[in-house]
Amino acid sequence: PPGKGGPAAAPRSKAQASALIGPKLRPLFWSVIAFGTRFPKEKTVWNEIDTGAVTKLAELEECFKAMEPVAIAGKAGARTAAADPETRFKKILDPARSQRIAISFRSLPQPKELKRLLNSFTGDPTQISLGAEQVQMLVAEMPTPDMIESMRKAERERRGVPWDRPEQYLREIASVPHFEARLRAWGFLAGLSEATGDSAARVEKVRQGLHAVQTSPALKAFLTTALAVGNRMNAGSTRGGAEGFALESLVKFDDVKTGPPQRRSLLHYVVFCFHRDFPKLAGALQQELAAVAGAKTVCLKEAVKEAEGVLEHGTTALQAVGSVAKRLKPDAPTRALMVEAIYPAVKRGVERAKRAIDEIKEVEEAYKRCAQYFGMRPGAATCLEFFVLWDNFLTVVAGYQGLDLASW
Prior knowledge:
Blueprint: H1 58-63, H2 95-104, H3 111-120, H4 132-140, H5 145-157, H6 165-174, H7 179-195, H8 199-215, H9 217-233, H10 266-277, H11 279-282, H12 285-288, H13 292-295, H14 300-327, H15 335-373, H16 383-401
């Protein structure tokens, strides 16, 4: 969605729907980027994408044909079952809270991965892979006993219907024993760990991550494949004919499934095409983007706050030492210590703190340029959210790369 949620979606009229060649396929609800004079395509990765490199999509048309709508009997003018979202997902949250959780949890790992992390947490700060703000979001939205009971009731009444994404998170969290105590402990230790982190090391992690995503040939090849597949899926609709798509839409490919019994994912198919059309690059994707794992642990906002706190303490100390040094007489026993040793040391520390702040701000500007390169609007996502999106994508793709891709 536009604004905080991600890049602006392209406003398309029905007259602008892309041409449909071949059978109509299941829709992919991605967010299309609207390029124009105010937001030119030339400075983004999408200007380097050529979907003509994706040779054929015959399997796509066979496996992802649109389902025939089935009318709901007994009601005049009733909507089709395929078009009614209430028949596709279980929901127990009110719309406002559902939307808030969907936006807030966007930077988190997938629901089952979050459950695994929470289950494996032992209290060791070195095990923490989420930032303090992310864990505090989880604490603020923890499922209540009433919500858990409502979810259990819905599962009994609507067996086989999947949960909507916000409820998926809450259901996975609620299935972890003592989840409230674990989350509160996790949040405390995450904050403690980040507060004692090294600023220079965090800045370097972000720099390496930015360099990796902007220079990876394998990633550009994957985006080429995904854009071609997504446009074929949405051919004949206003979502087709896209020149680029929002990064958060990458995980939406995993929500589109083939029919039973296999229920294979559209993202699985993209991985298959990626390996088929770019065999030399496919095996390099994870290696080329290895720096993402380190960058996704860094919160630049927290780094700036900590560095500014250090500078404030250092400035106060420098003023205090300087004041004492000025009052000391030339023959005072402690004058040499205060003037020649302590004061210069504190001053060097203050300068180091200032440089640390400057370095963080420099990498923040580098991130803004990188986000724009991928077609993101200013402020659409923080640097942390940006790399978590990439990490979630790599985790899912790695799972499909380990499967039998020849089965398509």
